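In this section we walk through a basic example: taking a raw amino acid sequence and producing a predicted 3D structure, encoded as discrete structure tokens. The instruction is simple. Fold the sequence below.
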Amino acid sequence: MSKLVSVRGPHARNDQDYIRIQWNMGNSCNYSCDYCPTILHDGSKPWLPLEMYLNTIDRLSTHYNALHKRLDYELIGGEVTVMPGFEDIIRKISEYNTHSIVFTNGSRTVKWWRKAKEYMDTVILTYHPLTQDKQHLIDVINEIKEDINIEINIAGIGGQVEELGELVEELRSLFKDCKYNNYNNVSICVKTMYKKLLGARSKQETYWEYSNKELAILQRPGIKPQESVHNHENKPQENVPDPTAWMTEFLYEDGTVKYVQNHQIINEGLNQFKGMKCHIGYESINIDATGEIYSSWCGAANFGNISNNNWQLLESKPRCPFDYCNNISDISITKTA
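The resulting token sequence is shown next.
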């Protein structure tokens, strides 16, 4: 295969004045799924004081707005929607005209979502079939689908993948007449479940031994492939969003360009960037559950802790030292040869 020249995530291609802040706000969760490591849901890293979150948003937003950069806050946990004062946090983000992307299991009541959706821009819903009620998921989607950008991941439980593949189309049908989320472009997929090797840089292993039929379903793109349709000369063209807009671009030395959805990058073994220059700390920063600020989840550089005022935001573009990059957020950061 031709040499990889660059990797660029969707935001780097579409908006050069963009910075992503992925924030692990704590590891408390209302679920304890067997395939999720205890450290990600046991509450051992409790929520920080609300004022600390709000003050950090003030400082980050003021700093980057002055540089004419757009901010996207990606809020992860644990389950962030159950933390005290979460509505105040997303309201504060919206006051700066910045964006919030909330990663959630969608378990809060429909009544809660009816109010909270006013302050959200994008929601990444993960459905856990062994724990959650399908009808509740459907009710939440119907409540927010005309107000918030939605992406849906379904945990690929071994032995249930074929059934979950059918659920994908059932959920997609909810968007058939949706005006806010385009039916053809909403991403809904059954996600391969990997053993979470926290801090490790080895190749990921799947949590279950999937059959070939299950693997074929897991490898389907989340965005529904479109059939080629012959358009008559005088027929108006439908304004359908570009499906590559939310994919990561891989550019090779021979000029080949490949666009891949995030959940497929590791599946296809495309997460090998050792020796490439990575724009960590420039396009994206990460805050962990204790308030430590890093250039990325691989931890290449530490900028301080949000609990004090001594932290500094620096730029860093080191060469990647790892054989594999196993964090989707880090993968989509720009890499250059």
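Looking at the output, two observations stand out. Confidence is low (pLDDT under 50) at residues 228-232. Residues 23 and 115 are 22 Å apart (CA to CA). In the next section we compare this with other chains.
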